[in-house]
C-alpha cells in the first residue's frame, strides 16, 4: 500500500425489511426488520478496510441524532471518519424492502437528509494529504449543494495528481439528473463503476458490454457491475475482460455493489491490475449478498 483511500459520500441509517412474498396492500406483511448503518459511500469505505486497505478515510455529513453511533460503527470497521454534524437536518434514512425469495432483490425508499448537504465549506485540500486514491459516491451529484463540493474536490485532486473513481449510485436519481449533466459533472474522473442499469442508462444502449465500451471513450477505465453475471472491464472503447461472478446464495443484495467497489479499490491500491482488482470485487460482492445489510462482517477479508 502506497497511500490512503479517501471516500466522500453518504452515511445513512438503513432500515432493512426482509419479507417473503408480495407486499399486502392495506394490511400487514410479515417481515424481519433490522436497523443498520449504511450509505453507499460509508459501505465502500468499510469494505475497502475489510479487504485489507490499512488507511481508509471517509468524509460525510450526518445529523446530530445518530452522529456518535455512526462514528463508532465506522471506526469499528477500520475507517477513519470525518463526519460533519448537521444541526438542521437528520441523518439520511433508507428503508430497504428485500424480497425474501431466491433473488433477494431490494427496493429503496430514500430520505437523503443531511448526506446531500455536504458543501464546499466542509472541504479542505489538506484532506488529500497522504491520499493515493479518491472515491466519490454518485449520490453527491443529486443536490446542488454537494455538486458544488464535487467540483471543488475534483479540482483539488487534479492539482495533486490523485486519481478519482466515481460510482453513479442510483439509476432512478440518475434519470432525474439527466445523462448529459452527469457526464459533464464526471469530467476528470479516472474510473467509473456503474451497475448494468446505470451503464445502459448513460449510453442508451441495451447491451452492458456495448455500454461499458462506449463509456470508456469518455472515462479512461470503466468497470461495469453486472450482479450474478459478474463484471466487465472496458478501456479505450473496448471491453478488455469479462469476469464471472462467484457462486453465492443471496440473502440480501443491499450493498453488493458497494462491496465490489471497496474491494476493487483496495486491490488497486495494493498494486493489482484492473482485471485482478475486478476479480476481488466479484469476490466481495458474492460475500456481501450472503449477509443482511450493506456493511462487511467483522473479521479478516
What features would you describe in this structure?
The protein is an alpha/beta fold and 301 residues long. The chain has a single domain, classed as UDP-N-acetylmuramoyl-L-alanine:D-glutamate ligase (3-Layer(aba) Sandwich). It contains 9 helices and 13 strands. The strands form 2 sheets. It has a 9-stranded mixed β-sheet with strand order 5-4-1-8-9-10-11-12-13, sandwiched between helices. Strands 3-2-6-7 form a 4-stranded mixed β-sheet. A hairpin with a 5-residue loop joins strand 11 and strand 12. Helix 8 runs antiparallel to helix 9. It starts with a strand and ends in a 12-residue tail after the last helix. The mean pLDDT is 92.
Keywords:
9-stranded mixed β-sheet; single chain; UDP-N-acetylmuramoyl-L-alanine:D-glutamate ligase; globular; alpha/beta
Layout of helices and strands:
Elements (H helix, E strand, L loop, with lengths): L3 E5 L3 E8 L11 E8 L1 H11 L5 E8 L3 H10 L2 E8 L5 E8 L6 E6 L19 E7 L6 H17 L3 E4 L3 H7 L1 H7 L5 E2 L3 H8 L4 H8 L5 E5 L5 E5 L2 E6 L12 H14 L4 H16 L12
Parallel strand pairs: 1-4, 1-8, 2-6, 4-5, 8-9, 9-10, 10-11
Antiparallel strand pairs: 2-3, 6-7, 11-12, 12-13
Helix pairs in contact: 1-8, 6-7, 8-9
Amino acid at each position: 500500500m502506497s497511500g490512503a483511500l479517501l471516500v466522500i459520500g453518504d452515511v445513512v441509517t438503513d432500515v432493512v425489511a426482509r419479507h417473503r412474498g408480495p407486499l399486502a396492500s392495506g394490511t400487514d406483511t410479515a417481515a424481519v426488520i433490522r436497523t443498520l448503518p449504511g450509505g453507499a459511500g460509508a459501505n465502500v469505505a468499510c469494505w475497502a478496510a475489510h479487504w485489507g486497505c490499512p488507511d481508509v478515510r471517509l468524509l460525510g455529513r450526518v445529523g446530530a441524532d445518530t452522529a456518535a453511533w455512526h462514528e463508532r460503527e465506522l471506526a469499528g470497521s477500520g475507517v477513519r471518519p470525518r463526519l460533519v454534524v448537521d444541526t438542521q437536518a437528520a441523518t439520511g434514512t433508507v428503508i430497504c424492502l428485500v424480497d425474501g425469495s431466491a433473488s433477494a432483490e431490494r427496493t429503496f425508499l430514500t430520505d437523503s437528509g443531511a448526506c446531500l448537504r455536504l458543501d464546499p465549506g466542509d472541504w479542505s485540500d489538506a484532506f488529500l494529504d497522504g491520499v493515493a486514491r479518491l472515491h466519490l459516491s454518485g449520490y453527491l451529484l443529486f443536490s446542488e449543494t454537494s455538486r458544488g463540493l464535487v467540483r471543488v474536490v475534483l479540482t483539488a485532486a487534479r492539482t495533486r495528481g490523485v486519481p478519482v473513481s466515481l460510482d453513479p449510485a442510483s439509476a432512478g436519481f440518475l434519470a432525474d439528473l439527466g445523462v448529459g449533466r452527469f457526464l459533464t459533472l464526471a469530467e476528470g474522473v479516472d474510473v467509473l463503476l456503474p451497475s448494468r442499469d446505470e451503464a445502459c442508462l448513460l449510453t442508451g444502449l441495451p447491451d452492458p458490454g456495448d455500454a461499458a465500451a462506449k463509456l470508456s471513450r469518455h472515462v479512461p477505465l470503466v468497470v461495469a457491475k453486472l450482479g450474478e453475471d459478474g463484471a466487465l472491464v472496458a478501456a479505450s472503447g473496448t471491453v478488455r475482460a469479462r469476469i464471472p461472478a462467484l457462486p453465492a446464495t443471496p440473502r440480501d443484495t443491499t450493498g453488493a455493489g458497494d462491496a465490489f467497489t471497496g474491494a476493487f479499490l483496495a486491490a488497486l491500491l495494493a498494486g493489482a491490475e484492473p482485471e485482478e482488482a475486478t476479480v476481488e470485487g466479484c469476490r466481495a460482492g458474492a460475500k456481501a449478498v450472503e449477509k443482511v445489510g450493506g456493511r462487511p462482517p467483522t473479521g479478516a477479508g
